[in-house]
Design brief:
By secondary structure, the protein is α/β, with parallel strands linked by helices. The chain has eight helices and 17 strands. It comes from Neolentinus lepideus HHB14362 ss-1.
Length: about 350
């Protein structure tokens, strides 16, 4: 929130509350104390309200029953809360959670409380969560969100949610850190467990590999035959101290001709691939993977009319240049040809500043 928004929203609320029965969208930003006027809505019927956005600007503040006035908003479908600190530390307020199709909880939410809320959101289609801290829950609730198609999580604790979520309708999953992540446990497979349990038809997967181990992603690939978009990246600077991306992912994505004459290719519908930076990955591993998939795609096109697979043609694989510390090797496909070029690192990049 900008400083211009850090004002007492109370007088504004007092001015617009007489028109509450006609609201379709409501966006508020201020300190929690300035939301006291919301209590005047207790007797109002918010029949037309569809979108609600609340920004909490005082650090560490919590919502304490401010949301109960929106119980009378039967058409509310979109709810976003932006906060500095902990927006939910008590039981979820009475609220039309079950009607929501879109939910954004940005900054400071706790995994256990979010799971409690998601349990109520039976109609939810799209969700963004920013989780900054673990909470006091010992046993998180196992929940199913039956209609959720798109989930974006920004947190160092994404695995906490995956261990307890079942998402049968999931199509798009994005996992990002708030800051540089740590080193994920190679023996912990939260992504695989969630996808297998959900039996979802995942089409787009974007993962920061400092949060989900590459081995977990590789293990998940056989479960997502409809995957069309795969992105495995790192927040800038993470690659300098741990080799998160290895040859193993390129080996897993390679197409193989089996002894019986059949082909094995994971993620056969893959169209877009983004990977990098690939520190320590051999150029041969990248080229071999791309070539093998092109051979397999060619054989599929000959044997099947129309082909049962799609072509991998939107590729961006980044690898540090071995001969020039301030350049990046970029692999891509152009006009069906595997290509490689060198691009200059941005002047402010950490690698360029460090001189490694």
């Amino acid at each position: 929130m900008s400083k211009a928004n850090r004002c007492d929203v109370g007088p504004c609320l007092d001015a617009i509350i007489p028109f509450a029965t006609r609201w379709r969208e409501l966006s508020l930003a201020g300190r929690t104390t300035s939301f006291a006027s919301l209590k005047k809505l207790q007797a109002s019927t918010l029949d037309y309200l569809e979108t609600l956005e609340i920004g909490i600007t005082n650090a560490g503040a919590v919502l304490t029953n401010e949301l109960t006035v929106f119980e009378s908003a039967p058409q509310l479908q979109r709810f976003a809360v932006h906060s500095i600190g902990f927006p939910f530390i008590a039981e979820p307020d009475p609220f039309p959670w079950k009607n929501l199709t879109h939910l954004n909880v940005v900054s400071g939410a706790l995994p256990g409380r979010c799971l409690q809320i998601l349990k109520e959101c039976t109609e939810l289609i799209c969700c963004e969560l920013a989780l900054e801290y673990a909470d006091e829950f010992v046993n998180y609730p196992h929940i199913t969100v039956p209609r959720l198609e798109a989930l974006q999580i920004r947190s160092p604790f994404a695995d906490l949610l995956f261990d307890y979520l079942t998402l049968p309708a999931l199509r798009t999953l994005k996992i990002q850190p708030v800051d540089c992540g740590g080193i994920p446990d190679v023996d912990h497979t939260p992504l695989y467990g969630m996808v297998k349990r959900s039996q979802c038809n995942l089409e787009k997967l974007c993962v920061d590999v400092s949060l989900i181990h590459t081995a977990d992603i590789i293990g998940t690939l056989p479960l997502v035959s409809g995957l069309r978009y795969l992105s495995m990246t790192l927040k800038e600077g993470s690659e300098l101290w741990y080799p998160f991306i290895t040859d193993a992912i390129f080996d897993a994505l390679s197409a193989r001709l089996l002894d019986d004459g059949d082909w094995l290719c994971l993620a056969p519908k893959l169209e877009t691939l983004r990977i990098g930076p690939c520190v320590g990955v051999a150029s041969d591993a990248i080229q071999s993977m791309l070539e093998s998939r092109q051979v397999w795609e060619h054989m599929e096109a000959i044997q099947n009319d129309p082909p049962s697979s799609t072509m991998l043609n939107n590729v961006a694989i980044y690898r540090p240049c071995e001969n020039c510390w301030n350049a990046i090797e970029l692999w891509y496909i152009q006009d069906s040809a595997i290509s490689k070029s060198h691009i200059q690192r941005p002047p402010g990049s950490r690698r360029a500043r460090s001189g490694h």
